[in-house]
Specification:
Elements: E1 11-12, E2 23-24, H1 51-54, E3 84-90, H2 97-106, E4 112-115, H3 117-122, H4 124-132, E5 136-139, H5 152-168, E6 176-177, H6 186-194, E7 198-200, E8 204-205, H7 208-211, H8 214-221, E9 229-233, H9 237-252, E10 256-258, H10 260-264, E11 275-276
Parallel strand pairs: 3-4, 3-9, 3-10, 4-5, 6-7, 7-11, 8-9
Antiparallel strand pairs: 1-2
Helix pairs in contact: 2-9, 5-6, 8-9
The protein binds nickel (II) ion.
């Protein structure tokens, strides 16, 4: 899984901050109230270059060598303890996806992208950016066909060609498939299962493709309840415009924004062939 780059209720630590220890993330309203256990910070370095400047007395350095700092384990959000929602974006990468990624980086917010294979093939750099910036990437098939109307061979091509485009961009083989239009039947779900993936649907539909309205898209997203998966599309400028406000207002309501794997608390491959609608609606 590539996630938890921007978990909500965590402390931010780093090798360069050893003498300062950990500082709480400040832009997540849930951070102060989260019961998520926190790793203690490593001991402060004994050989800070500031020592010689701080007191006028130069002390003899400690005889024991400074241990090489070990990287902090990546903390994860426990969505059984805090109220989480997952923003998901379909149909990209598109002309506005980089702008959306800028916004998500600014807000330190992870999201989940269900990419089209054909677009992933022409914009592998954007898929790579999604992964590198801590987002989760799933498959939205190659051509956005209604999968229930395809022959078995065509269904297989839709899934497998998209997996190839995603992995060619440097991402892991997707363990999440969102069938276009949410169209599924037993054949579709069996094909998804055979590829070690879960079917990821949604329970909040922003209908952003229809309303093309920042205000309406925002209002619909804000109907989310704990554990919800929110469906949006990164191909509409009105949606991309709405996202910063949606993030702020969801956080003001106490939500932690997570990727779908974080919401589920496991890699979706563990739910292969299942239909996931929210954190708890899985069948
Ligand atoms: Ni779609």
């Amino acid at each position: 899984m590539q996630l938890a780059k921007y978990p909500g209720a965590i402390l931010v630590c780093g090798a360069l901050l050893l003498t300062a220890g950990c500082t709480p993330a400040t832009n997540d309203s849930s951070a102060t109230s989260s019961p998520t256990p926190v790793e203690s910070s490593p001991p402060a370095s004994t050989t800070s270059p500031n020592d010689a400047l701080s007191g006028g007395v130069i002390e003899t350095p400690a005889p024991t060598p400074t241990p090489t700092p070990t990287p902090e384990p990546t903390p994860t959000v426990d969505c059984t303890l805090v109220s989480c929602v997952a923003l998901t974006f379909d149909d990209g990468p598109g002309p506005y996806t980089n702008q959306l990624l800028d916004e998500l980086a600014e807000k330190k917010t992870p999201a989940t992208f269900f990419v089209l294979g054909a677009k992933a093939q022409t914009s592998p750099d954007i898929v790579a950016r999604e992964v590198n910036e801590g987002h989760a990437v799933g498959s939205h098939t190659w051509n956005h066909y209604q999968l229930t109307k395809l022959t078995p061979d065509a269904l297989a091509s839709e899934l497998d060609n998209t997996t190839r485009a995603i992995t060619a961009a440097g991402a892991s083989a997707p363990t999440m498939v969102r069938p276009p239009y949410g169209a599924k039947n037993s054949e579709v779900m069996e094909a998804i299962k055979a590829r070690g993936a879960a079917g990821i649907f949604w329970d909040i539909d922003s209908e952003d493709w229809k309303n093309k309205s920042t205000a309406i898209t925002t209002a619909r997203a804000l109907e989310a309840q704990p554990g919800d998966i929110i469906l949006m599309h990164d191909i509409h400028p009105s949606t991309v415009q709405a996202v910063p406000g949606i993030i702020d207002q969801l956080r003001a309501k106490g939500y932690t924004l997570v990727t779908v794997p974080e919401l589920l608390g496991k890699d979706p491959s563990e739910l292969a062939g299942m239909q996931v609608y929210s954190q708890t609606q899985i069948r």
